[in-house]
Amino acid sequence: MSRFFSKKYNALTPYTPGEQPKDQKYIKLNTNESPFPPTPAVCEAVKNAAAHVNLYSDPECRELVSTWCDTMGTAPDEVLFTNGSDEILNFAFMAFCDAEHPAVFPNISYGFYPVFAMLNGIPYEEIPLAKDFSVNVEDYIGVKKTVILANPNAPTGIALPLCDIERIVASNPDHVVVIDEAYVDFGGESAIPLIRKYDNLLVTGTFSKSRSMAGARLGFGIAHPALIRDLSTVKYSTNPYNVNAMTQAAGVATLKENALAMERCQAVIENREYTARELARLGFTMTNSRANFLFAAHPLLSGETVYTELRKRGILVRHFSKSEIANYNRITVGSREEMEALISALEEILKNPN
Ligand code: PMP
Questions:
Q1: Is the CB of 180 under 6 A from ligand 1?
Q2: Which atom of ligand 1 approaches the CA of 209 most closely?
Q3: Cα 39 from chain centroid?
Q4: Pocket flag, ligand 1, residue 154 (CB < 6 Å)
Q5: CA 271/CA 264 separation, integer angstroms
Q6: Ligand 1 within 6 A of 188 CB?
Q7: Do 195 and 220 contact (CB within 8 A), yes or no?
Q8: Is the distance from the beta carbon of residue 187 to the nearest atom of ligand 1 less than 6 Å?
Q9: Which atom of ligand 1 is nearest to the CA of 217?
Q10: What is the structure's pLDDT at 354?
Q11: Percentage helix, strand, coil, to 5, in the chain?
Q12: Mean pLDDT for the stretch of residues 150-161
């Protein structure tokens, strides 16, 4: 740390992104990316947009917003696009949390939430998950804080039904409830239809997982127009051109092939079910994941051993050091070939456990 670093950030522990190693070719099952490459139409759109990068991108993302609204049935003033959903989440912490509106989220969830709270000097509470890793809904009823819930949750993949989300939103009318739906397209139930009923609900989402665009960085928030205006105020006070021109073009092209994106999600869901059956056959226990990853532990091997042994065999999964989940690994669901390679590697590891 230099002597110039602001005291505000002295205690900040930054978020640790999953590894993106380049030393050899890995089967990457560690950052929940899509196994499907972008389509030719998306690549073409990016190439065409690149020819005009002497000009600023459209700060209002007009074509992207109108294509989204045509596809998803929301109104233009209910949508805000951002540089990945990490950015809309940070905007939400900035806009809707302060000393009178502390943040609350589960102790096992997306590791960026406490970082956003610390970065913005916001008090926060982490509520333990139940023993089976589910969110105890009653903990959030009338909690009178800004609630942030990933649904499905990460890294557990467990999803809450929409009726539970609605109870949480309805019971906290004077606080914003943020539902992070990064993984909703893999079998969750979206809360977007509730935004017309509740003016305190913000639903966030991403093109990183279900739309094969992690490297392009495109996220969004959907809410009552008043909340979107607040988030826009934060955006125009930080980086008006937060979504670059290539990404806007890629987003439009992806939305025009929405049916294909949803078919690909279905393929991932089928691979998830196949992998879950195979892992169970090898003795792994798992949560009931509705996301594009599985959260698995083995009674004979520590989580770290599974991680290290897979890495030696060229397969990357995500291991978290938090004690409650140290026995588990989060395994992204890739293509069928990748999952078959994972299962063979695990069979081999289990034959020689030491
Ligand atoms: N929310 C959750 C729960 C996530 O796991 C992630 C991915 N790391 C994100 C949000 C952010 O995704 P992105 O910024 O790529 O949209």
A1: yes
A2: 15
A3: 22
A4: yes
A5: 11
A6: no
A7: no
A8: no
A9: 15
A10: 64
A11: 40, 15, 40
A12: 98
Nearest Cα neighbor of 117 from 100, 135, 104 is 104
The Cα–Cα gap between 228 and 231 comes to 5
Q: Strand 219-223 vs strand 285-286: parallel, antiparallel, or unpaired?
A: unpaired
* Identity of residue 60: E
Distance 219 CA to ligand 1 centre (A): 9
Alpha-carbon span 154 to 246, nearest angstrom: 29
CA 326, distance to chain mean position in Å, is 21
CA–CA separation, 127 and 279 (whole Å): 30
Per-residue pLDDT reduced to its tens digit, 77-110: 999 999 999 999 999 999 999 999 999 999 999 9
Cis upstream peptide for 102 (omega within 30°): no
In the block, which residue shows the tokens 């759109």? Answer: 45
Question: Which amino acid is located at 255 in the chain?
Answer: L
Q: Which of 164, 122, 162 is nearest to 146 (CA)?
A: 122
**pLDDT tens, position by position, 34-49:** 999 999 999 999 999 9
Taken as a whole, the chain contains a residue count of 354
The two structure tokens encoding residue 71: 């596809």
Ligand 1 lined by 182 (C-beta under 6 Å): yes
- For range 344-349, the mean pLDDT: 98
Q: For 318-331, give the DSSP string.
A: EE---GGGTTEEEE
One-letter amino acid for residue 66 of the chain: S
Residue 134 to residue 238: CA distance in whole angstroms: 36
Bridge partner list, 316:
28
Q: pTM to 2 decimals?
A: 0.97
Helix segments in 183-313, DSSP class H = 225-236, 245-256, 258-281, 303-312
For 263, list phi and psi in degrees, rounded to 5. Answer: -65, -40
Q: Is 232 in the pocket of ligand 1 (CB under 6 A)?
A: no
Report which ligand 1 atom has the smallest distance to the Cα of 205: 16
Task: Tell me the backbone φ, ψ of residue 114, rounded to 5 degrees.
Answer: -65, -30
> In whole angstroms, what is the distance from residue 181 CA to residue 188 CA?
8
